Amino acid sequence: MDIAFTQAHHDFRAEIREWLERHVPKDRLPSLDTAEGFKLHRQWEGVLAKDKWGNVNWPEEYGGRGLDLTHWLIFEEEYYRADAPLRVSQNGIFLLAPTIMEYGTPEQKARFLPPMASGEEIWAQAWSEPGAGSDMAAIRTKAVRDGDHYVINGQKTWSSRAVFADWCFALVRTEEGSERHKGLSKILLPLDSPGLTRRPIAQLDGETGFAELFFDDVRVPAENLLGPEHGGWGVAMATAGFERGLLLRSPARFQEAAARLVRLYRDNKDRLSSGVGEQVLQAWMNAERFCAATYQLIARVQAGASVNSEASANKIFWSEMDRHLHRTAMTIMGAKAELESGLDAIDNGRWLDGYMFSLAGPIYAGTNEIQRNILAERVLGLPRK
Amino acid sequence: MDFRFTQDQQDLIDGAKEFFLGENTVERMRKIASGETVDNLWPQFAKLGFLGLMAPESAGGLEQPLVVMAGVAEAAGYAGLSEPYLEIAGISVPHADEDELSGQIRRAMRSDLRPYFDASLSDDGDAVNSIDPLRNLVKADRGNDDSLDNINHHGAVLTAAQLVGLAHRMVDMSVDYAKDRHQFGKPIGSFQAIKHQLANVLTQIEFTRPMVHLAAIQGGRAVHTAKVAAIDTAMLAAETAIQVHGGMGYTFEVDLHLFMKRAWALCGEWGDRNYHMKKLEETVLHGQEPLGAGTTFS
Ligand SMILES: Cc1cc2nc3c(=O)[nH]c(=O)nc-3n(C[C@H](O)[C@H](O)[C@H](O)COP(=O)(O)OP(=O)(O)OC[C@H]3O[C@@H](n4cnc5c(N)ncnc54)[C@H](O)[C@@H]3O)c2cc1C
Q1: SS in 3 state form for A215-232?
Q2: Mean predicted confidence (pLDDT) in B251-275
Q3: Which of A41, A185, A283, B71 stands 20 to 30 A from B102 (CA)?
Q4: Which residue of B has its CA nearest to A285?
Q5: How many independent structural domains does chain A possess?
């Protein structure tokens, strides 16, 4: 076991730290769930990409630096330390890109990865349907082959940032008469395709963070099939592994939140009841544990292991840690917790926003109940029925 | 940066686990608990090199770092090892200077099955009763000597590692039981209420073990976090395990209690939860140490 960073790691850290000091916008950008915020976040992706900071672990030919995942963790640490903008391209770069790298044709890699890296094309995920949430195998949206095209009909929902995004990766039923996990395929398509209607849905905070998508004879070239036809479930599970397991939520995000929580505690200490300090420490310890576990997981992945059902434990841990951390902040803020923004609102309402978003963590990327089923059945081996 | 055991280290730990489980069966544990004489494992510990795991190569040891001993400690916890092996090989041996070393090992070999333990490592004192039927404790003066922080660090890490092993064992026992026991015409393990409780424990274990490894290598505040996390994980495992076992879990006959009671005992050893939380209050809540991203691995 070796936990020393190499000189190259230290140099890399110094380099990205210095770059971020010069480039991170002084004021926090407006929410990426607003039209204006989305535009500014897209521009920021371009700034990152220009100096090749957007995806340090990607191969150089697609706009990355070809570095290993330890470098990516260091990047994330510095990124959150600098309080840099959230990644509006996260569904593309963290979920779709690894899937394209694994299953995509050379043409698909060359076509989709560079504009994803530059922020020119921002991606949304179109899997959930009104009747297929936790039970994703109940997907009914159909794609019927017609010559060298697929014709898609059906409805998707809860598609994050689809109101403003450019492309989506959809999971649809391609095999006529197929059921459950069989006969599904993953198809990539532009969100401004003729026949596709986007209806914004206001989220808990009132912003239009996700959308319903209605497909009415939407034609997509057959070459936009990602992975095997009718084998989309396996492709989707690989993506879900990235989502739950590793890339979507690196420890840095929670460690910075925990450090801010400690400061919030210190600022308010005198009026707090005696148990609050314990909760603050609990939040801080959770973030430390998540960090240690992630470094260990990354070491295993770099040695060739794949992240399978264990990703479920990861997803449960980070989402519940995040909710507990933010609830503790709400407790500390007391009567001011309800203030959305303005001078009286602590940190301009950031904790409240964070608390609201933390409530979604145990739901998206597969609810925590589903993750517990997976752990119990596939890791512990308990009987399904 | 490669935060994994090397293959050699893993082989060593796996070998230890196999040995502990093969020798320290629950039948053996029950015999000890009822006062019967059992085979003395110390000669084997010595022969297989486990006693000298952390001893310098010059003294014939394997000179392994504490983190490897933590892997072995987890295995010892899993197996419910009754001997105070870790106290001797993981704490006493690495803190003895070389001249004393062989004496230490001899002393270890002379030890009978009295898993007495105390920070002073003295085996004289008045006997006290533990709820753990395999623990014979003696009472000795403990003192609060800060110069022993390094030893305390070893003790807390190895105790935390054992707690992880114990938690894991209790989950495994519960899974076996839940597959076997039928109610309402099905295995109780098919009920989500059972599944989800066990999944919760598994999740806590997965996020405690790496913290223990980090604590072993880095020391400092990581030790306090690791010990607190291990205590909380082991207590959750014990409470969940007894619930899954139903009335059977409340009996002396079913083996679960042997591991549960060991967990209770180890929670308080080498600094209880209050001690470690207070240390974190000083350093994290009220101290000057850097916090936030990039401060965990120094
Ligand atoms: C902020 C946010 C962003 C999202 N972004 C996207 C996106 O970009 N693209 C996309 O495709 N989807 C997205 N989703 C959808 C998300 O994946 C689903 O909400 C989720 O899978 C749950 O499905 P559901 O909402 O239909 O809930 P349901 O499946 O109806 O679940 C309701 C409750 O029942 C429980 N439940 C259901 N089945 C079981 C079971 N077998 N055992 C135990 N409990 C069960 C659930 O755990 C939950 O508590 C997003 C959701 C949110 C909140």
Answers
A1: EEEEEEEHHHEECCCCEH
A2: 92
A3: B71
A4: B225
A5: 3
